[in-house]
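Collaborator request, handled under Task 6.
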Amino acid sequence: MSSQSLQNTPSSSTTTLRVPQVVLFDMDGVLYDSMPNHGVAWQRAMKEFGIHFTLEDSYATEGARGVDTIRKYAKTQLGKELSEEEAQRMYDVKAHYFHEMPEAKVFDGVIDLMQKIKASGLKIGIVTGSAQLPLIERVTRDFGDFVSADQITTAYDVKRGKPNPDPYLMGLQKAGNYSPTEGIVVENAPLGVHAGAAAGCYTVAINSGPLDDSALLNEGADILFPTIREFADNWERVLDSLSKR
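C-alpha cells returned to the collaborator:
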C-alpha cells in the first residue's frame, strides 16, 4: 500500500462541496475490523450452496446487499434466478456462521475521529449494506454517543444497494435531509467508494484491506488514507482544506 496517497489533498476533487454538515461512515472495514470474519463466513455459506466464492470475492462485493451478492453468484455459477426470499434464506446461513466467530474489534482511531467530528459541529451517520440485526444493534451500543438508531441506514432501507448511490442518499436524508454536497463519505470498499462518489459526496477511502490503492481511487475516492487512525490524525487538515474550496 502506497504512502503517496497521504500526499493527496481534497483540492484534487471535482466535487463541489458546501460547508460539510454530516459524515457518513460505512461499517465493516471502516468502523470494525470485521472483513476477515465476513470472508470466512461467506466462503463457508456459499460452498454449502454449491457456489465458489473466494476471500477476494468478499472484498470485491463488500458493501452490496448480501441478497444481491447471492443472487448474482447463483445466476452466474448455477444458472438460477433466485427470488429475494430465497436469497435471504441463504444470507441467513452466512449471518449464522459470521456470528459464531469472535466479535470484531473497533479500529483504532474511530472513537477519536468521531469525537473530532462532533467537536467540529458535524453530524454522524452510518450507512451499511448489512442486514444483520445483531451487528446493527452493536453499532448503537458502541457509538451511541455519536449516532442515534434513526441515523443508521441498512440494507432494509433501500432496494438498490452499493455501488448505486441510494444508500448514501438515504443516509443524507436520515441525518437531516442534507444535500450530497454537504456530505462526507468514509469507505473502504470499491463498491462503497463508487456509491459515495455517485451520490455526489466528498469520499474518503480507508484502505484497510488487501486491495491496491488504485482499486479505491479509480472508483472516485477524493483522498485515501491507509488507516482510520491516520484519517483521525489528519481530520483538521481535511476539514480546513474543504472549507477553503
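The cover message to the collaborator said: "The radius of gyration is 17 Å. Strands lie at 22-25, 123-127, 152-153, 183-187, 202-206, 223-225. Please let us know whether this matches your experimental observations."
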